[in-house]
Amino acid sequence: MKLIIVSLSLLFVTFGFSAEVKPWTTKLKNLTPFEKHVIVDKGTERAFSGKYVNTKEKGVYTCKVCGAPLYKSDDKFDSHCGWPSFDDAIKGAIKRQKDADGRRSEILCARCGAHLGHVFEGEGLTEKNIRHCVNSVSLNFNKTKTIKEHKLSRAYFAGGCFWGVEYYLEKIEGVKEVISGFMGGNVKNPSYYQVVGTKTGHLETVEVVYDPRKVSYEKLAKTFFEIHDPTQADGQGPDIGSQYLSAIFVNTKEERKVVKKLIGLLEKKRLKIVTKVLKKTPFYKAEEYHQDYYDRKGGTPYCHRRVKRF
Predict the structure, then answer these.
(1) Residue 144 needs a FRET pair 20 to 30 A away by CA distance; which of 7, 36, 256, 309 works?
(2) Is 161 a catalytic residue?
(3) Which of 109, 112, 161, 303 is catalytic?
(4) 63 in active site
C-alpha cells in the first residue's frame, strides 16, 4: 500500500497538478502506458504515427485528460512535420513553459497541465507564423462540437498603444479574448504602418470579447479609465499622435449612458476627461505579431499602469 501511495504521489508531482489533480485522478489511472509516457512523462509519439495527423473534419480537439477544448479544426494545417499542427489555440486553453532541454517551449493544457507537445515560431508556414506541434495521443476529437460564443458581447476601447490596453483588459475575469486592431478611420483593412505613417483616421483600438454574465460593461469601462490617462489629449505617455488618442466606441445607447456616467464621476473629481465617446465603426484586426504582445515577449506595458480612480 505504501508503494502505491508513493507512486501516485510521484505521478501527481510530475504532472504538476497540485490542488487541481483531484478531478482527473480516475482519468490518469485509466491512461495506457504509452499515453502516460507522453501526457505525464512528457514523451513524444513517432512522426506520422498519430491518429490526427491527417484529420480534416470540422470540429474541436480537446484534452485527453480533462476534456477542455484546446484547438479548432479551422486552425489546423498540414506542416508535413508528422504531428498535428495548429497555428492558433482557443484563447486561454494553452500555457507555455520552458522545456527541460532549455531551448524549446513546451505547451500544456492550461486547465489540467497535461503535456501536449511544443510550440515553434518564425517558420513562415502560415500567416500567423506559429506552429503548435501536438501529439495525437494527448487529444480527443469532437467532430460536431462547437464553442458556444453566441452569448458573448464585444466592447471597443482606444487608449494609446493597444499592447498595453490589451495587457490589462484580458486579465479581467469574464473576458474571453482581447484583440488589438484599428477603428474609426476611413481605410479598409489598414496595415499597422499605414495607420502610423499616413492619415487613415484610425485609432489603435482593442476589441474585448466578454461574457456579460460574468463581467459587466461598466466594469470594463471603469478598468479602461484606470489603466490609461484619460486627461492626456495628444496621445498616451510617450506615444504621441492621432492614432493614440483616448476614445470609447459604443454599440448601444446603454453603453453610451454608462460611459457618460463614468466620465461625469471623474469630472466631479476635477479631472478634465478628453476621452471621446464615438459610435461603433468597423473594427480591423491588426497583424498577428501585435496580438498578445506582452504575453509572448515578456515584460510589462511602458505607457500604461493601473491608477485607482473610482
Answers:
(1) 36
(2) yes
(3) 161
(4) no
